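Task: complex structure prediction.
Instruction: return structure tokens for all chains below.
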Amino acid sequence: MQGLTIAFQIPALILGATGAGFGALAHDAGMKFGPTAFLSVVLYATPAQVVLVDQFARGASLLGGAFAICLTAIRLLPMMVTLMPYLRGPDVPRWQYVFAAHYIAITGWTEAYRRLPLLPPRLRMPHFLGIGTALMCCLTLGTMAGYELAGVVPPLLTSALLFMTPLYFIMSLILGAKQAVDWVALLAGLVVGPICYLAAPGFDLLLTGLMGGTIAFWFGHGREGRRL
Amino acid sequence: MSALPDGLWGYLILLGMALAFHEPWRWAGIVLGRDIDVHGPVFAWVRSVATALVAGLVMRLVLFPAGALGTLPPGIRVGAFATGIAVFFLTRRSLAKGVLAGAAALIAGAMAIG
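Output:
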């Protein structure tokens, strides 16, 4: 349950701001209030939410929207895989995994990435469910506020709030980096990311993860090989 | 809002889309992660992929942001980002101070150029 309170800090502020950004966007795209807030609960991943609203606004079909969110969700797979060793246990009921999986998104993952290894194994799943529940509330409340306040808040303040997201992500990665491989993966992502974005927007995150991650993995493997 | 009907059907369609096209990737992570060996090469690779992916997103958000943030000059965004990270390291890795300093630097930079 401590996870609930811990999430009401910087990550909460950041998800609230992210939600507000999405809410304002959905408002401008002509979405209704209810469905906009509902998306923050059922998708709980802003890239998918933004893509879907954008598709609707452009008059795309439901199938087109479904295809778009399906692509954005692929990145959630490696995140869930890397948290499973911390979350799994003999006493953990199955429904908890399903809830935990739903709470997988970049913010929840970055929090868990640095927090869960420090906790005793028995507390990890409850802690993560607490973090996830709190973060989802923040995103949904932020979405509602952003929808209602669209166009009222000065743009510079909105910019500053949105700017907290990359700052928070990079610092969380630095705090979570334990081995040299983690640092190489981090730096590789920073370098490869912009190149992939310019070369293949839409697929850039997936490509960055695969390319940067593989470079870092080779590096780590090479070091292990030399040590033997 | 052509494709999405109003009322209950709209909500059911959104729920159905989420469960059929978005959520399965998360479920796949449960299945694939259930028996993975933390000390094995597969886990090391997947962890590197997830890390690089988030780092890539960081650069995208700083260099190519959408909306209001994108209207600010890149120099201010990069400078404020660097300020935030510098403060983070100078404050013995305080996440809150680093994040708030970066955001404050962005506001200061934007106001300085008017």
